[in-house]
Design a protein that fits this description.
By secondary structure, the protein is mainly alpha-helical. It has a single domain, classed as Orthogonal Bundle (Helix Hairpins). Helices cover 68% and strands 4% of the residues. The longest helix has 40 residues. The chain is elongated and about 70 Å long. InterPro entries: K_chnl_dom.
Length: 191
């Protein structure tokens, strides 16, 4: 916990230090950035080389469990927005879940690339992350190509997952942001 030192005003009250408003405004963004950075670091540091053809059942099980967890959490956040629960923070949770889903697919592609004949051009974790983002953005440069059936299935799954869950999550974020702007405008309107 950070120590908050107050200064005394002439009226007997306390005033926070000069840096306190900036810290309060920046803190949520720093937490989000820290969690996002931890997700990226975990992707590059986890022993993904032990997955793939060496342990196919474990690989598929982990992929299904983590992807299901992310989908359930996204649906929960979307539901909170649709029910207009003001105590929820979809602007914090949804972007982090989207980052997590990108890294889940990247890990799956990286593990699949260990199997001969599944991918052409995918050799590193950066390649897998790049392919995931390119697929998510529907760009498709063609430098990395899914050749095997498992790689194509996961690619189709990512496209469907992105279309359903990530589009709904982005819509929920947009809806919440629009509602907040409307509420602030109504609150600040002279009455």
């Amino acid at each position: 916990m950070t120590e908050r030192r107050a200064t005394t005003t002439g009226t007997g009250g306390t005033r926070p230090p000069w840096w306190w408003p900036a810290w309060r405004a920046a803190r949520p963004w720093l937490v989000r950035a820290g969690i996002a950075a931890a997700t990226v670091m975990a992707y590059f540091l986890l022993p993904l080389d032990h997955l793939g053809p060496q342990r196919p059942v474990l690989s598929w099980l982990l992929f299904a469990l983590v992807l299901t967890f992310v989908a359930v959490m996204l649906l929960r956040q979307i539901r909170h927005v649709l029910l207009d629960r003001p105590e929820t923070r979809p602007g914090v949770v949804i972007p982090l879940l989207i980052i997590l889903s990108v890294h889940v697919f990247s890990a799956a592609y990286y593990a699949l690339a260990k199997q001969p004949g599944e991918f052409t051009g995918l050799r590193t974790r950066v390649d897998a992350l790049y392919f995931t983002v390119v697929t998510l953005a529907t760009v498709g440069y063609g430098d990395i190509t899914p050749r095997g059936q498992a790689a194509r299935i996961v690619t189709v799954l990512q496209i469907a997952y992105s279309f359903v869950f990530l589009t709904a999550a982005a819509t929920a974020l947009t809806t919440r942001a629009r509602d907040m702007v409307v509420r602030r405008t109504e609150r600040d309107r002279p009455g």
